Each structure stands twice: as structure tokens, then as C-alpha cells.
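In response to the reviewer comment on reproducibility (Comment 2.3), we provide here a single inverse folding case reported in full, input and output, so that an independent group could reproduce the run without further information from us. The C-alpha cells appear first.
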């Protein structure tokens, strides 16, 4: 029987190939959707795990996380620098790192921060050292620049018609270890230098009244400084200041510090994390756990997944209908062959088995090939996303995928029975007269 089936498949190889490809493409569509959605969830969750608590000015929690954790460019309102001073002195805080963004270089975001974050973000450096002067920078593992290279910051991005700052040129002092997050594509510079080249510290000290107003944390202070931050609308050179590349860093944060879009906080304990979140969720600040915000995003992503799965299921249903049509035509063309087998004494059961095994084999091969193609497609898409975002997207099969394969094989079993039943019911006399 097996030899007969193999000979039949060789004789009808063109039609068999079409059946296999149809099934493979339909299966690959569904598999790639499932694998890509899972990879996105895992990759983003692992990226957020590195940051325990994010504090920012009142506004969208989702945008705060997207900007501070995933470095998606967006203007954020500023909170008073006094918040950073309070966090730095809080006994519940292991460390608190300010971040400021808005500048870029060669497509890489430039993030102003402290030496504390640079030391703790990736657990060390692969080469070089942490910046100790205003004119030094530390690059992420995926930044394709060399130690000692020059970085000329541009306000915004080249696509947005950004303007290159002439106040300061950074020199690369070190490279971080890989983190699997968007920060692998980031250029870290001292927040002090960012303040200086945007003229923010100069403005902070220019009027005593404004210092007091910002220290109070009122909305007027936040909106008054919002246009100064890196990443906000820029109207020329009026916000530019001066920076000394050889100036030593001063990270003794005081209430007179300029406004900040976000602060990354490492609490000492889990209990401290919840207390800090509660304390800074009132007034003009908001504190969030990135994981909680991602949960809400996953809910939206889940809806999108259901839509994509429905589209994939629709495509698979169309393929199944096409296969039924092909099957009926195929059995019609083989009526003489089936009649001859019956005439030579082949029992109905043997005919049923031959036709069922042949068609089920084609469907099973198509499903297996579809899983391979879906996996390859998910790898390609994840690789493209990782190169642009820096987030590692782990693509892999899980236990529930075995259930999907079982369902598809069960469906193939039923579908393969259709041509087998048609062949089983054929009369040998009628088949030979056809």
C-alpha cells in the first residue's frame, strides 16, 4: 500500500505540491501571528523588568513608560527638580536616576542621566569607563560607534529637521553590556551636560522667584519649563546654553535642579516600592510600575491578536474549502484507477485507506512545513523589530503550540476522510464505464 501511495504521489507530484503549499501558507500565517505576539510580550516584559518604579509629572502613565523605559520619543511635561532631591535623600530608595531625552545622534537617542544609572543599568561595561566629565558619554551595546568617537547631539531627529547643537561634543568613554532593551541603542550622557546645553540650569538660577515656584511643584512651573526639555518643541537658539566638556560632574541633587521628565527609582524593598508609588501618585507627580502599564497594553494587544487570529482562521477556512474542491475533482479524475483496483479484487477498506493516507500525508507535510515557515517569518519580523528598537524578541514554541498542531492534524484527519469516503462509495462497474 505504501509503495502504491508513493508511486501515485510521484505521478501526481504537481498537484501534490500545490496542496502542500496551500496548507503550509495557511498554517504559517496563524503560527507567525501567535509566535510574534508572544515574542513581543516576552521582550517588552523583560525590558520593563529592569526598572522597578518610574516617577514623572502628572499625565499619561502609558506615555511615561513608553518614553522612559522604551525610549519612544514624545514630549513629556516636567516635574520639579525638588522631587529628585527628595528621592535621593529618601531612606527607602536604593538609588534614583534622573533622565532627560530629546536629542539624538545618527538615529540613536541621547539620554541624559547619572553615573548611578550607567553603573546599574547593565551590570557593568564591556569596555571603557563610566563618564566622569560633562563631555563624556557611555553607549549601549547595540550602538555601532567606537570608543573615543565624537558625538554631536542633534535636537530631535534628522527626519524631523533637527538642529545640531554646537555647544558640546561628547566623546565615547565606555560601552555597556547588552541588556536586551531599548537602552542597548541609547547614548548615555551626564544629565548635567543636557541641562547646560539647553540653558536650563542658567534659567533655574536666573530668577530666585522661579526657583521657589518650581520647588513648590505647581503646574505653572511644570508648563513653564516644558518647552525647555530635550524632546519638546524647539524654537531656535534661545534655550541653548554653554557647557564645559572638562567640567567635573556634580550629582548632589538639590531642590534647585532643573525640571525633569522622568526619574527611574530603585527601591530597597518591595514594600518600599509600593509606599513610594503611593506617596508620589498625588499632587503633580505620578508613579507607576512599568509592568502594570504593560498589562493594560497587553489587553489591547490581545484584542489585536484576536483579530489577526480570526483573519488567519478565515484564510485557513478558504484553503480548506479549496482543498475540498480539489479533492472532489481529483477523485473524479481517478475514477478509472479506483475502478480498476476494485475490479482486481481490492476491498473497499483498502481503497479507503489508500486515498485517506495519501491525502492525510499531504496535509500533514503541509502543516509541518507551515510551522517551519511561521517560525522563520516570526524570526525575521522579530529581528527587524529588535534592530530598530533594541528590544530582544525571543521567538520560540511553547506547550500550547502542541495543542494547535493537534487541532490542525485532527482537522486534517477529517478533511482527508472526505475523498476517502467518495472513493469508498464508488461502484467499480460505474468507474470503469466512466
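Designed residues, in position order:
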Amino acid at each position: 500500500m505504501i509503495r502504491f501511495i508513493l508511486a501515485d504521489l510521484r505521478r501526481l507530484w504537481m498537484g501534490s505540491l500545490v496542496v502542500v503549499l496551500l496548507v503550509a501558507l495557511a498554517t504559517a500565517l496563524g503560527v507567525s501571528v501567535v509566535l510574534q505576539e508572544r515574542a513581543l510580550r516576552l521582550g517588552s516584559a523583560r525590558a520593563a523588568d529592569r526598572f522597578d518604579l518610574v516617577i514623572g509629572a502628572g499625565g499619561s502613565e502609558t506615555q511615561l513608560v513608553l518614553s522612559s523605559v522604551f525610549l519612544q520619543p514624545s514630549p513629556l511635561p516636567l516635574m520639579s527638580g525638588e522631587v529628585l532631591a527628595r528621592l535621593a535623600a529618601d531612606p527607602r530608595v536604593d538609588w534614583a536616576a534622573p533622565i532627560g531625552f530629546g536629542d539624538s545622534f545618527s538615529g540613536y537617542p541621547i539620554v541624559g542621566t547619572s553615573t548611578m544609572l550607567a553603573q546599574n543599568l547593565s551590570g557593568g561595561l564591556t569596555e571603557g569607563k563610566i563618564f566622569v566629565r560633562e563631555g563624556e558619554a557611555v553607549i549601549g551595546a547595540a550602538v555601532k560607534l567606537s570608543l573615543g568617537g565624537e558625538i554631536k547631539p542633534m535636537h530631535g531627529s534628522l527626519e524631523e529637521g533637527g538642529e545640531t547643537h554646537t555647544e558640546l561634543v561628547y566623546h565615547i568613554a565606555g560601552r555597556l553590556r547588552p541588556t536586551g532593551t531599548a537602552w542597548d541603542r541609547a547614548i548615555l550622557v551626564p544629565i548635567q551636560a543636557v541641562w547646560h546645553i539647553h540653558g536650563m540650569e542658567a534659567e533655574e538660577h536666573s530668577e530666585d522667584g522661579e526657583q521657589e515656584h518650581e520647588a513648590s511643584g505647581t503646574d505653572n512651573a511644570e508648563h513653564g519649563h516644558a518647552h525647555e526639555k530635550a524632546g519638546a518643541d524647539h524654537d531656535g537658539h534661545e534655550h541653548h546654553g554653554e557647557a564645559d566638556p572638562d567640567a567635573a560632574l556634580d550629582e548632589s541633587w538639590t531642590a534647585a535642579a532643573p525640571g525633569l521628565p522622568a526619574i527611574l527609582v530603585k527601591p530597597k524593598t518591595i514594600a518600599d516600592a509600593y509606599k513610594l508609588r503611593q506617596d508620589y501618585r498625588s499632587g503633580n507627580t505620578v508613579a507607576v510600575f512599568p509592568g502594570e502599564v504593560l498589562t493594560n497594553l497587553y489587553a489591547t494587544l490581545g484584542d489585536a491578536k484576536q483579530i489577526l487570529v480570526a483573519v488567519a482562521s478565515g484564510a485557513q477556512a478558504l484553503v480548506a474549502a479549496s482543498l475540498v474542491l480539489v479533492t472532489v475533482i481529483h477523485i473524479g479524475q481517478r475514477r478509472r484507477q479506483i475502478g480498476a483496483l476494485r475490479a482486481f479484487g481490492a476491498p473497499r477498506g483498502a481503497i479507503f485507506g489508500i486515498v485517506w493516507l495519501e491525502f492525510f500525508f499531504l496535509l500533514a507535510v503541509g502543516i509541518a512545513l507551515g510551522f517551519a515557515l511561521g517560525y522563520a517569518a516570526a524570526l525575521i519580523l522579530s529581528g527587524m523589530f529588535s534592530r530598530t528598537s533594541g528590544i530582544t524578541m525571543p521567538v520560540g514554541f511553547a506547550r500550547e503550540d502542541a495543542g494547535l498542531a493537534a487541532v490542525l492534524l485532527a482537522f486534517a484527519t477529517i478533511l482527508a476522510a472526505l475523498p476517502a469516503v467518495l472513493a469508498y462509495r464508488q461502484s467499480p462497474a460505474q468507474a470503469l464505464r466512466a
